Amino acid sequence: MALHRLSRLSCLLRSAVMVTLRRNIGLSAVVFNKAKDLDPVQKLFLDKIREYNTKSKAAGGVVEAGPAYQKNLTEEMAKLQRLYGGGDLTKFPQFKFPEPKLEEGATK
Please, what is the average pLDDT of the chain? Predict the structure, then answer.
């Protein structure tokens, strides 16, 4: 009888703790999001990332890449094509695995 009551009390305490934790975590998330909006360093960082994203879309690739960058890129691509047997290095390779021919073994 006492063991049953102890089990029931344990279950009630566990559910009360879970509800309290859920409420506190939910409240903490709201407070954290409001505090995150007020952080000037983080806001500046995100603004710079967004600015770079728009510039890279407008440039069609790397921002402010000069002729030296393009020359280096083509040299490296040529080197990789020599090392790995050519092909288009901008695409993922297509693998073809033929089905092996299996022969039935003799049974005992």
Answer: 80
